[in-house]
Amino acid sequence: MVEPTYAKLLVPLFGYAILAPLGGVLAAPSRWAQGALFFGIIFLQCIKASTLGVMFHSIEWYRGHTKGFEFTLVDMLCISLIVASFLSRPKSFKFLPPGLVFYLLFVAVAGMTIRNAYEPLYTLMAIVNFAKASLVYVAAFNFIRSRDDLRVLFHAMAAALMVECVFVLKQKYLGGAFQPTGLFDHQNSMCMWAYFYCIPLFAVSLSRETKPFDAAVYLFGVACGSLAVVSALSRGALAALVSGLVAVLFLAFLFGGITRRKVAIVALGCVFGSVVLYRASDSIIERFQASGDVGNPEGDFRVLLNRVSKQMLEDTGTGVGWNNFNVANSRPYKRYSYFYEEFYGGQGHSRDPRYYTRNANTESLYWMYLAETGYRGFFALILFMGITLWWVARSFWQRGERRDSLAGFFLLGLMVTLLELYTHSMIERVLTQTNNLACWLAFLGIAAHFEQARRERIRPRRYERYHLYWRLFREYFLKDGRRGLPARFRI
Fold first, then answer.
1. Dihedrals φ, ψ of 55, to 5°?
2. CA atoms of 50 and 73, how far apart (whole Å)
3. pTM
4. For a disulfide at 225, which of 32, 196, 198, 415, Cβ 3.0-4.6 Å?
5. pLDDT per residue over 35-52, tens digit each?
């Protein structure tokens, strides 16, 4: 008889292998059905992934970033959309879009640390979940074709922000939660996801090409997302959201000029922001005063966590193993648990090893990857981040006079969002959370669509250049092809 844990695995396998491909076959003839699948992929990111899925080998008690083999409804929707896109456009479909090879390189390099991991199974969990996330990248890249497809994306983002805001406000004002988490398991994850949607959506609402009704929907979504962030009192996300919206507004004026819509949005934004901040000022002040993790560097817990990461890197060079930080830093292993014991012992707490079996993970995404995957995994991640960010910036800039367009301002908002995200990741590691990882890869998959379009535009000129080089080579080096060749090579 199959054990319950393995019986649970049969459900997602049936969904991945049969139901999802069948859904793709049914959706292939209909562009509307494909849009519905993509809408679902983007909208469902407002719900913690495991809520709509199955966790195999679940270790919810673990404090690392991957707590089991996760199989979700979003994965199935991605498979359905990939199958539908392939069947509807087999000649233009790409299984390996631009940039995906760099992401898979990161997964491969990080996965190689399984050889020296404390718990190889935990590393295997990260390999499977992060590799599986590439389905979102492929699905988003192959779906986007036109301006209408982008509108599907934006309406899904706005709807998700509205739904999330309802649950956040319910938890805060009906449930009495000081820091509501919405449909996520932690307020920081929810807030990073919220501003990841808000900033590009705000940029699109400022475009001349956006219809008034669409702009109103997008702005309402941005207002809902902003309200959720303020209500959750996540300091880093709040700073990233405000600075991101201001940066987008400034760049929109710079590249799109002054319009009545932008002036009206600024006026409404000032009124809305003033009211919200006034109402939430007491909670915000209390949150900043109550936080004890920032202040004197010697007593700053984040600094301690980075010291632990640095020591792991110096000791190994290749890292302690992907998703193994919270194994290596805790008892029964004394080497890194000693840092925590000294820190808390110096504050008057017990040094009994029994209290240090589940020590905290580092807050910095970059220090975490340096500690877990070493220099190779870290630089592979930075390579993927850098290349895709460059593609977004170049795609926006090369639009020239059409920068103030639906696609142009989306790229503008995405560029600002990525800069905010990568800066924020210095103090938060929630990009490893399934929903945030999926949103990040979905946006980068869309950015890869614009990069592919750029390559197709320059391909004819590139071929013309190659033909010119070959003609000059024949004329000046080969002497018109045959006369300059030795007799034994002549035909």
1. -105, 120
2. 9
3. 0.88
4. 198
5. 999 999 999 999 998 888
